[in-house]
Amino acid sequence: xxxxxxxxxxxxxxxxxxxxxxxxxxxxxxxxxxxxxxxxxxxxxxxxxxxxxxxxxxxxxxxxxxxxxxxxxxxxxxxxxxxxxxxxxxxxxxxxxxxxxxxxxxxxxxxxxxxxxxxxxxxxxxxxxxxxxxxxxxxxxxxxxxxxxxxxxxxxxxxxxxxxxxxxxxxxxxxxxxxxxxxxxxxxxxxxxxxxxxxxxxxxxxxxxxxxxxxxxxxxxxxxxxxxxxxxxxxxxxxxxxxxxxxxxxxxxxxxxxxxxxxxxxxxxxxxxxxxxxxxxxxxxxxxxxxxxxxxxxxxxxxxxxxxxxxxxxxxxxxxxxxxxxxxxxxxxxxxxxxxxxxxxxxxxxxxxxxxxxxxxxxxxxxxxxxxxxxxxxxxxxxxxxxxxxxxxxxxxxxxxxxxxxxxxxxxxxxxxxxxxxxxxxxxxxxxxxxxxxxxxxxxxxxxxxxxxxxxxxxxxxxxxxxxxxxxxxxxxxxxxxxxxxxxxxxxxxxxxxxxxxxxxxxxxxxxxxxxxxxxxxxxxxxxxxxxxxxxxxxxxxxxxxxxxxxxxxxxxxxxxxxxxxxxxxxxxxxxxxxxxxxxxxxxxxxxxxxxxxxxxxxxxxxxxxxxxxxxxxxxxxxxxxxxxxxxxxxxxxxxxxxxxxxxxxxxxxxxxxxxxxxxxxxxxxxxxxxxxxxxxxxxxxxxxxxxxxxxxxxxxxxxxxxxxxxxxxxxxxxxxxxxxxxx
Length: 728
Prior knowledge:
The protein has 728 residues and is of the alpha+beta class. It has helices at 2-30, 39-50, 55-72, 75-92, 95-112, 115-131, 135-152, 155-171, 175-192, 195-211, 215-228, 235-251, 255-271, 275-291, 295-373, 375-438, 447-472, 485-495, 497-502, 521-537, 570-575, 597-607, 633-641, 650-653, 657-663, 666-671, 678-685, 693-707, 711-717, and strands at residues 480-484, 506-509, 516-520, 544-553, 556-563, 612-616, 622-629. Helix 28 runs antiparallel to helix 29 (711-717).
């Protein structure tokens, strides 16, 4: 009897869902006629309509949307495809897959600076962490969302924000605050005429009352939600609401209506293959049967709960197995192709060798026979053979010359590529430095930090390319000094703060304040930047990066940077410091690099006389260890003490005509030196003799103007007619 009721309810829901199926079928038919540019958007529409009706098909079309958007390089639709596919996985109960796609969508939205999609990304992750039982993590995402949502001002986003904040507070058992936020969301939905949103808000009001054990008010809220719920478009919501109503009735002792609603919830969930909702409805039916003392029926429903849980686990396992099998098949296909190519090459060599042997045997036999018959004919045959030999030698010589020419051409092209790359990278530094200078302008507000960090990241890539070439050509000069290692790590960590926050990572600086190194500060900061960027790229969400240091041998410090990421195999470890070598990262935002960062680190460390090593294994993280000369603590503080801290007056900085004459052509050479060539500027300033206080202050102002990319100030200090004083 119970099974017959369920079958009837399933059939009724199939009839209800037919309009959605008709709409989806119409969109699917349109796929055959739309252009490639329109295809990602259409696939996203199909995924969205199926998400709460048929999650399995929604996943299929969501993955197709991701592929189509990637092929078209359509960033906007790729963000939506990641988000919609994550929703479908969440509805199927595959939370880890949902987390993967949600995170990719948020990272891409941050990269493209799409504020609205950033809001949806934070909302999705907050919602998912509620399913994962982490309301504190959900609240953290919602706090990050709040200022962006207020800036965007989209009512739909505000409604989602209030609703999810209320759900988070419900999970934290703060019922009054939860009701306040959910009612704010309900007001927004009413103001915009969003009936589906009103149903969702009313349903969650019922959840709050149910959790607070106010079962009568919970019943009213659920009944109001059902009165406005459109079953056609959101069976997941209907199943959840009817199950909540059944629980409210159950706690009031109304067994029959409770059972009726629980069966509706189960039928709708089974009809749309929403296993998670079916599991929840079965749990409610087991409780009802237990209260009615129908223990056999209660056991059946409890067994159904176990079956649904096992089905979720098996499907999750099958999904991982399918991914592994796909990768294995791809590897086997590649292996077969390579093996066939090798086999073909062997057969070709054997065929050529056999052919040559046969030809030589025939020629030798013919020569022997002709020798016995006629000496003249033998001579003629020898001439023919000699002619063929000469022709073969000519061909070999011609082919050899072609190979030599091609190798020379490849070398020219490689040299041209290096020169072109160097020229482009060198020309990019000026506009990047201008961007960095503009980021200090207060008018950019909160965007200034993002501009500055993005500019610094790009400048780091460009400088890596230039400095790797300088190291290769032995043109790099070190400007070493005694540095507190903990300060250098803090400076580098500050430049990757946004990247660390985007993946919820923690950067631990465990370096003792007493450790001092003797190194070039700018190169050392960039070494840490490259190691931090590499660690962030390959770290899992919520992981940590740790920096430590210890005394290795007398006069040398061993500094380590360790992460908890995906690690690498032996092949990757053997090539990790090669130029342009990059290991494949999991989908995590696709952090860009030139493949020169670790090459630069190795060259820079070796330029200081040290070595850099890597220790890693798959899924066990990676640790880079570099050795640098130990500095002197007293020298470090002495260098800091030598830096003037007092302001300089107008008269104190004014150079006399005799001073300018003493400087000679040095100001002219400094004016012609770009600001980004800090090493050259320092080297030129070293030409000024020590002991003159005015010159010392003048040098300090020039260095400060160069470090702050203040071109106007820099040129004024180097012009006799306009050299101004330092502004306090």
